[in-house]
Design a protein that fits this description.
Blueprint: H1 3-29, E1 61-62, E2 65-66, H2 81-87, H3 102-110, H4 123-131, E3 136-142, H5 143-149, E4 155-156, E5 167-168, E6 171-177, H6 178-213, E7 227-229, E8 236-238, E9 243-244, E10 247-248
Antiparallel strand pairs: 1-2, 3-6, 4-6, 5-6, 7-8, 9-10
């Protein structure tokens, strides 16, 4: 132990002895010991019943119900109806409101199950009829998909009154010449049919290989256009995709 450490320990011991002596002298004189106080922070405000001690009140309630006498000492004043009124005095009630514009009301009416399909308004058709001229085909496009993939051949319809694109919720109204729309649809129909043919050819090739490897003969995958009959009901049906979205598709 170094001399510096010994000196510090001696000083600390002397200080403890001095404080103990002062405390003993204070007790001998009957004076209260000084209370420790924090510096820089004032005393906290105590929330108490302004009308007197808590046990002197018998008219306090919680949620409109009187407090049983044997429970009055367990419930703080700020938890009572009277205490909450005082705490919230002068404050504005916080509440949330859901605002709906006319377009939202039309969308809600369009999905109203209490109306027949021909009775409910169609906000999409109303906007298309009002802003898309003859010879043009209208379509509502996802704003998010347009931001990611572009308009994909569609042109946004601009409202002349506002100079902004016509929207229904988060959908953008687009237009395309009818002849171009027909050619576009035919292109994607042919592309879809080609994808189906490739899927069928790949499936047929795998099934044929499995049967050949298993030694199965005179049996193979059913081909598009072949007829099958149910042994129980004797119903006959045709294999293969016959129709897609109202347009004939050749497998």
């Amino acid at each position: 132990m170094t001399s510096r450490t010994k000196t510090r320990m001696a000083d600390r011991l002397a200080g403890d002895q001095e404080r103990a002596a002062k405390a003993a002298e204070t007790r001998r004189r009957g004076e209260p010991a000084p209370k420790a106080r924090s510096t820089g922070v004032g005393d906290s405000r105590v929330f108490v019943d302004p009308d007197g001690p808590r046990d002197a009140r018998t008219d306090l309630t919680v949620n409109g119900e009187p407090i049983p006498e044997h429970l009055t000492h367990l419930i703080p004043y700020e938890a009572t109806d009277q205490g909450r009124v005082e705490v919230n005095a002068g404050k504005t009630e916080a509440r949330a409101q859901v605002l709906r514009d006319p377009v939202d009301n039309k969308i809600a009416a369009f999905g109203d199950e209490s109306l027949e399909p021909w009775q409910s308004p169609n906000p999409m058709k109303e906007l298309a009829d009002a802003h898309v001229g003859p010879g043009m085909r209208a379509r509502f496009l996802s704003q998010r998909k347009c931001e990611r993939d572009g308009m994909r051949g569609w042109k946004p319809v601009i409202n002349p009154a506002t100079g902004e694109p016509v929207k229904l919720g988060h959908m953008i109204l687009g237009e395309m010449p009818e002849a171009k729309a027909i050619a576009r649809n035919k292109h994607y129909e042919e592309q879809g049919a080609e994808d189906l043919r490739e899927i069928y050819d790949e499936f047929n090739e795998k099934q044929t290989k499995l049967m050949r490897d298993a030694g199965i003969r005179d049996m193979g995958p059913l081909r598009p256009g072949e007829l099958v009959e149910d042994d129980r009901t004797h119903e006959v049906d045709q294999i293969g995709l016959q129709q897609s979205r109202g347009n004939a598709a050749t497998p």
